[in-house]
Hints:
The structure holds three protein chains of three kinds.
Chain A: H1 2-21, E1 26-30, H2 36-48, E2 53-57, H3 59-67, E3 72-77, H4 80-88, E4 97-102, E5 104-108, H5 121-129, E6 135-138, H6 144-155, H7 159-162, E7 166-169, H8 172-181, E8 186-190, H9 191-194, H10 197-201, E9 205-208, E10 217-223, H11 229-238, H12 241-249
Parallel strand pairs in A: 1-2, 1-3, 6-7, 6-8
Antiparallel strand pairs in A: 3-10, 4-10, 5-8, 5-9
Helix pairs in contact in A: 2-12
Chain B: E1 15-21, E2 27-33, E3 38-42, H1 49-57, E4 64-69, E5 72-76, E6 81-82, E7 90-93, H2 105-110, H3 118-131, H4 147-160, E8 165-169, H5 177-190, E9 198-202, H6 205-211, E10 214-219, E11 222-227, H7 229-234, H8 239-244, E12 250-259, E13 264-269, E14 272-276, E15 287-291, E16 297-299, E17 313-324, E18 327-334, E19 337-347, H9 348-353, E20 361-366, E21 372-375
Parallel strand pairs in B: 3-9, 3-10, 7-8, 8-9
Antiparallel strand pairs in B: 1-2, 1-4, 4-5, 5-6, 10-11, 12-13, 12-15, 13-14, 15-21, 16-20, 17-18, 17-20, 18-19
Helix pairs in contact in B: 3-4
Chain C: H1 3-33, H2 39-51, H3 54-65, H4 70-79, H5 87-97, H6 99-111, H7 115-123, H8 128-157, H9 160-166, H10 176-185, H11 189-220
Helix pairs in contact in C: 1-5, 1-6, 1-8, 1-10, 2-6, 3-9, 5-9, 6-8, 7-8, 8-11, 10-11
Amino acid sequence: MPARLAGAVLAALLAAAPAAAAQAPVVAAAADLRFALPEVAAAFALDTGERVRLSFGSSGNFARQIRQGAPYEVFLSADEGYVLALAADGFTRDRGTLYAIGRLALVVPEGSPLAVDGSLGDLAAALDDGRLGRLAIANPAHAPYGRAAEEALRHAGLWPRIRPHLVLGENVAQAAQFALEGGAAGGLVAYSLALAPQVAAAGARIALVPAAYHAPLRQRIVLVAGAGAVAERFYAFVRGPAARRTLRAYGFTLPGES
Amino acid sequence: MASRAGSAAASPEGLGVALAQARPIPLEADFAAAPGEVLALVGPSGSGKSSVLRCIAGLARPTRGRVHIDGTAWLDTEAGIDIPPHRRAVGMVFQSYALFPHLSALANVAAALSHLAAATRRSRAAELLALVHLEGLEERRPAALSGGQQQRVAVARALARDPAVLLLDEPFSAVDKATRQRLYRELAAMRQRLAMPVVLVTHDLDEALMLADRLCLLHHGRTLQTGRPIEVINHPASVQAARLVGQQNLFAATVVEHRPDRGLTLLDWHDRVIEAAPAPAFAPGARVAWMIPPAKVVLHRRDRPSRGEAENPVPGTVIRHLVLGDSTLTTMAVCGADDLALTFTVPVHVAERNRLAVGAGVTVSLLAAAIHVMPADFRGLD
Amino acid sequence: MDWQALWLSLRLGLVTVALLLPLGVWAARRLAHHRMRAKGLIEALIALPLVLPPTVVGYYLLVAFGNASPLGGLWQAVFGHPLAFTFDGLVVASVIINLPFAIQPMVRAFEAIPAEVREAAACCGMTPWQALWRVELPLAWPGVLTAMVLSFAHTIGEFGVMLMVGGNVPGETATVSIAIYDRVQAFDSAAAGRMSALLLAFSLATMALTYGFSRRIGRRLA
C-alpha cells in the first residue's frame, strides 16, 4: 500500500537525522577563524583520526544560540566577555581558556581611492575630501571585531562623521567580503582574514591597525555544557603546539608571547 | 447495513416522508410512495423540491423529520437516527447527472456495484447500460456523450445499486424536447420493471401527468395536496393549489342551495345562478371559490347548435385570442361583469368557422360536472 | 559543491512534503467542502507565511519552540536534544512556512469538483474514504501534485527562517541555501556559483512542471 511505503520512507529520512547526532561534534567558531580553523581541524583529524564539524558566525550570535540550546560542543569566541557571561549563567563547563589575541587590519581592495594607512590618517583625509565611499566593518552590536573597529574609529576621532559611510557585516567574514567584493572603498576587519591567500590573490593591500586603538581582542575557547570526549580532545588540541603554529601564521598573538 | 426492497425481513410499505424545518429552507412536507409507484413532486422554483429529495437521500438533514423505507427508519430526528447516504440504498439521478468525469460509462455504473463480487461487476454494469439502450458506448467518457446519453448513464448508475427508492431530480430539464419525448417513453417502458418507489421532481405539470401515478404539490416546502395527477389538476384542494397547477378560471361565488336529487349544487355567481358539481361540504349562504378547466368551457357553435347549450350558458365578448399551433386560447369578458374573464380552448378550424376574434360576441357553456368548488381563500401565493 | 548540504536540503524537502501531503489533503478538503464562518480567517492565517518577512516567522518560531518555550522544553525532555537548531526543528518550521504553498492549490483543486459529483459518490454507496480515493483524488491530483512540488521547491530555497531557527550546523541544519551564503563569506565564489546554478536550474524545472499541471486542473473536469 502506498501509505505504508511512504511511512517507511518518512521514518528512514527522519532517522537519518538522529544518526547524524552521533556524528562529529559541532564547533562554533568566530568568523575571524574562517581560514585558520579548518587547517587546525585538518591537523586534528590527521593526528587523532577524529573529525569535528565547523560552523562560523559572529561570536555574539553564537552566544545567543548557545543560550537557546543550540547543540554546539565547543565555542571559540573572538571576545572573552561572551564566554565569561555564558560561564556565569551555567551554559559552559568552566570559564574556558584564552587561545589567541586578535588584531584589527585595514583592507583596501584594488582600485580603491584609499591609501593603505593602518593609523587611519588617510581614512580621515578621505573623509574630508570626499574620496571615501563605503567602509565595511562587522556589526558592533554582536561581533567583537566590529566593536574593535568602532573603538579604533573613535580613537582616531572619526566616529560620528564616518557612521553614514559604514556598511555592516553580520560577522567579520561578511564584512571582509563586502570590503573586497562589495564595492566598498575598504574595510576594518580581522587581521587573520586579511592574511588569507584569497585576499592577496584579489590584489588587496593590508595594514595592521595599532593595538592601542582598541581594547584587546582576547579570544577565549570554552567547552559547552554536555560536551563529549571528542570535543574535549579538540579543546586540548587548539591549545597545543600544532594549532598555535597555525594561529601564529594567521597573525594571531598567542598567550604567553608578545 | 443498507435496507433493500424485497429483503425477507422487510414489509413492503414503500417510502414514507415527513419533514419539518424553518431554516435555511422552510419545509413542511408529508407524503408517501408505494413500491412500484411513481410520485411526482411538483412545485415552482424554490419550493423546496430538491431539498426534500436530498433529505430522502441523506444528503441534507432537516431540523425535524422522519424518512422510512419498507419499515426501516433512515432518518428519525427524535430517535437520533440519521443513516449517512452511502449506507442508504438510494439511487439518485441528479439534475446535472453528476457523472464521474474521469471514468468511462461502464466504470461509472460499476462504481455503484461495490456490493457485488468484483468479477461480476463488469457484466452487470454492461447489462444495465444495455437496459438503457447504451450498448456500444460503454468505454466512452461522459465528455464524449450527448446529454441524453449522459442521463441514461446516470439512470443506469442509480439503478445499479439495487436501490430501495429511486430519486430523479428534474432529470429531463437539461435535454432538448425531442430527446425528452424519447426519454419519457423509455422511462414509461422501464417502469414496469421497477419494483421500488420512484420520486420524480419536476416543475413541468405535463411531465407529471405523463409519467406519474401520483402527484404531490409543494409550495415553499409545504405539501399542499397529494393525489392522482388528473385529480389534483382538476380538483385542487385550494385556490393556492389551483393557481399552482395553472388553472385560470378561478372565481368567487356564494352557495345558494344543494340539490341532491339532481346531483347539483347551485351557486350565485355575480347574480347569475350556475349549476355546479355537488359540494355538500359548503353550507348554503357560504362564500366559496370555484374553478373550471378551460377544456370544459364549451363554445356555442353558430353552425351546429346543440342541447348542451342549455347548461350554464354565459354570454360575453372576446378580449384575447391566441393561435397556438393547431389550437387556440381564447379569453372572453363576461357580459355584465367585465372584470370576470373565462378562458377556453378550441381547435383552429372551429375558431375560424365561428369567426372568433377580439371584439366578437360569443356564448359558452360551463359543464356543471367540471365546476369544482373550493374554500374562499384568495390569499396570494408567496 | 557541498554535497552534504544538498543532501540535507533534499531530505528536508522530502520529509516536509511527506508530512504536508496528508495534512494538506485533510485541511484542503475541509476548507473546500464545508462552509465555515471562520473560513476567511483560517485562509488568511494559512497564507500568513507568504507575506510575513522570513525573519518575523523565524522569530516567532523560535519563541514557540526555542529552549525557553514549553514546547522546546518538552521536546528536550522527551528526545534528549532541543527542537531548535536541529533537523527536526527545521522540519517543523518548514511544514509551517509551506502551509500556504501546500494548501492553497489543493483547496482550489478540491473546490473545482462539483458538489453533486461528491454527493453522487455517496449515493453510489462509497464511504467518504472511498470517495476520496476513487473520485476526489483522481480529479484533484494535478492540484495536489502542484502543491507538493511547490512546497518541495520552496523548502529547498528557504533561507531566512532556516538560518534563524536552525543556525548553520553542518550536516544538521546547514541547507544548500545557507551553504551558498557560507561559501560567499569564505570567498569561495566558485562553489557558491556552482550551487546557485544548480538551484536555478532546479527552480526553473519546478516552475515549468507546476504551470504545466495547473493547466491540467481545468481540463480534467471538462
